[in-house]
Write a structure and sequence with these properties.
Largest sheet: 7 strands, mixed
Low-confidence stretches: none
CATH topology: Rossmann fold
Order of helices and strands: HEHEHEEHEHEEEE
Number of helices: 5
Radius of gyration: 16 Å
Number of strands: 9
CATH superfamily: Vaccinia Virus protein VP39
Structural class: alpha/beta
């Protein structure tokens, strides 16, 4: 399947945070999702990553975990809109509920609600050999929590981190002005 990505404005969003297209594309490339993968999308927000992951894994299942009721509704609406019945929405605040899920190939973490260490503790025993965790960190504090966790678990994990800055041109009359989006850190972790 050729992956071109879905335009941001194709998603129903309202006021719920959403991972933007360029970051989704990079995150999904780092995730290396297989067609039959089991995927957790933790802090799924609008479900933009869940939907795109489900399209990459048509024989797999995406478990979209979201604590915000509005987000849960948006994930369901976006999954229906893009006809991806393999997205299963779970209204919970992670790490609650992870213990009941099947073992996982790929974990996408977009929001951790200040519970990143507990989430990583919960997904570690569920992560299959060669499984990958991809975190999108908006704050430096979340980035450092992730790096500290991976360093303290260096017997189990290897990680890499990139910082991405996307700038879009915005037309202002006869001119085009650069409008920067917030920088994002993408951390990819995999079991040794």
């Amino acid at each position: 399947m050729n992956y071109l990505g879905i335009d941001d404005d194709a998603f129903i969003r309202n006021n719920v945070p959403m991972t933007k297209q360029e970051i989704r594309i990079l995150s999904l490339v780092k995730a290396r999702i297989k067609p039959d993968a089991v995927i957790y999308d933790i802090g799924a927000g609008t479900g933009s990553l869940s939907v795109e992951a489900a399209r990459l894994a048509p024989q797999g299942t995406v478990y979209a975990l979201e604590r915000n009721a509005e987000g849960v509704g948006l994930i369901r609406a976006n999954a229906a809109n893009f006809a991806v019945p393999n997205v299963k929405v779970i209204e919970t605040e992670a790490p609650a509920g992870i213990e009941r899920l099947p073992d996982v190939d790929t974990v996408l973490i977009g929001g951790s609600g200040s519970k990143l260490e507990g989430i990583l503790d919960a997904v570690t025993p569920k992560l299959k050999p060669d499984g990958r965790i991809v975190l999108n960190c908006i704050t430096v504090q979340t980035l450092m929590q992730c790096i500290d966790y991976m360093r303290s678990h260096s017997d189990s994990y290897v990680y890499e981190a990139i910082q991405v800055q996307v700038t879009r041109l915005q037309q202002l009359g006869p001119y085009d002005m650069a409008k920067a989006a917030n920088p994002i850190y993408i951390v990819t972790c995999w079991k040794k």
